[in-house]
Write a structure and sequence with these properties.
single chain; 692 residues; mainly alpha; six-stranded mixed β-sheet; two-stranded antiparallel sheet; 63% helix; 5% strand; disordered C terminus
Length: 692
Amino acid sequence: MAQDQHLDKSAKTQSSGEKKSKCCDGFKMFLVALCLSYICKALGGVVMKSSIIQIERRFEISSSVVGLIDGSFEMGNLLVIVFVSYFGSKLHRPKIIGIGCFIMGIGSILTALPHFLMGYYRYSKDFSTNTSSNLTSSLTVCVPDQDVLLNRTSSTMVGKGHEKESGSYMWVFVLLGNMLRGIGETPIGPLGISYMDDFAQEGQSSFYLGILNGVAMIGPIIGFLMGSLFFRIYVDVGYVDLSTIRITPKDSRWVGAWWLGFLVSGMLSIISSIPFFFLPKSLHKQQERKTSLSLHQLKTSEEKHQTADSINSSQENVTADLADFFQSLKSILTNPLYVLLLLSTLLHVSAFIGIVTYVIKFLEQQYGQSASEANTVIGAISLPTVAAGIFLGGYIIKRFKFTLLGSAKFAFFTTSVAFIFYLSNFALICEKKSIAGLTLTYDGNNPVASHINVPLSYCNSDCNCDESQWEPLCGNNGITYISPCLAGCKSSSGNAKWTVLHNCSCIEEDGFKNRNTSARLGECPRDYQCKRKFYFYIAVQCLVHFFSSLGHISMLMMIFKNVQPELKSLAVGFQSLIVRVLGGIPAPIYYGILIDKSCLKWSINHQGKQGTCRIYNSTVNGYSFLGLTAILKFLALIFYFLFISAMKKKYKGEGAKGLENGKKVINEANLDSLEKDGHLLPALKADQETNM
């Protein structure tokens, strides 16, 4: 008897030691490593999104091309998602995740590589990267009756020599790097969560999932802070004399040190991959090894045989599996609830991707914010309001114990409120900028019907200016002029950012001709009324983000709760595939094409081809950007309304009464179960099978 008690005590001690070993040596190490990989994954995404406008300018490409570069991440993701989904669970999951993090890091570094292969950035025909030349600060001014060829070609000779031109096809490296980052990111989520769920203590998966997603928010915070800092630094910092740079971060030609963000995120991703290579394939095996070496060897041998038998069995049943797959796919695609929710989600995600990709450009063109300032604003308003909305939304569902239909209605209500607030953005669009030669005649007196081929005026017709040049200056009359020559300026003083142009014949003050007028380099700032609208815009975005995120959890639940339990994994996987293919890839491209339509002035690269857009019609740009997003959001709401109507019809009669009376509710335990493995409640499951 005493011996039995001693054995029981030893067994308990051994079991306790095994659990402690598991937590300390295996699972906790994996959780920390996975949290770090999630931070790096989110960081890489924010760095790419925030660097879009810098990449566009550095490589002199249009918004539609940069949209293709952004969509390459999803392309890379799709290349391996099937392999990861099918074979990932059969292989060494921690090592696969580690390899993914390493590839993700290499992709980020490859994205930054063109910076070191290309020549110095030349933001103007007049700017030379040869800092020993006194032509660095030269400007083309109006010299009447001068040789037109001299004025147009002399400046293009400046800077020729050892450096390469900025416009080239080197952006392909950025596309390939982003695609490689997408390939590496693929296994982190599905394999990490499944491994965590397999070896976490019973009922703790949802807790660890909450930790994981909470810690991941550190990534965007770091990303926005880095963007705010790095985009204030000139792209060729350390290689050129910054005192010769005459543009500021608010100039449409400014390119910040975009490559620094990719190097930092790439190195962090590579570092995050290291712990995964020291983790076992199964934490249970690790415990058994410590308990009994002989037993471990026996089980390992048995597992090898079982694995071999499993492989042989799977090879024999490939045809049957394929038939079952297509039958399951047919089942979810003939489920009207699933299809309607899929369409609604696709439209919502497309609008979200379009906004995230081009919001910095929107803030810059609409309100005159620099990329650095825009990153600060987005980080300050987005992260806190989204986090607060998701937390409060989850609390409301648990507190009031919403039914399945009640949760769907709650999500529709919050999304509708967010959409109404979003529509108020149209009232916050600023008037188009006053630009001589684009929106006004060159003398600045009259508006023009079209910005194409605006005729020269009496004040600059004898200057023989290069009309393709973009060297904006702000006159004392508050009008922006395309270049000193086209403004009729005869001389300049000062240097770099503090250059002042004098005797500008096209500039008039108070409607009277004044030959002694002057101008300073750079576009004219936005007026006070537009700046006021910007502050209202920030407040509106806080409300939009908050109400949108309130219904986030409810929207996620719908995809699990309206398909058969055995099909939920396929339903989520197919939804992810469709959203990536039809949302993640094309959305940045067609948003970019629409934005390009509002361009007023294109740059001309060294090959004489169209480069990047220097300035947009802010009114057209605002209505286009906001209008497309509003259309997508409105269509998503329509499909979601149809989804709720179909849901009511499906759960009519006794089932509906049960739902509406609160007999079948989604309580806290159900939410935990949903986060862990997505299983339906037995009551709801039975009700679904009855209605099927």
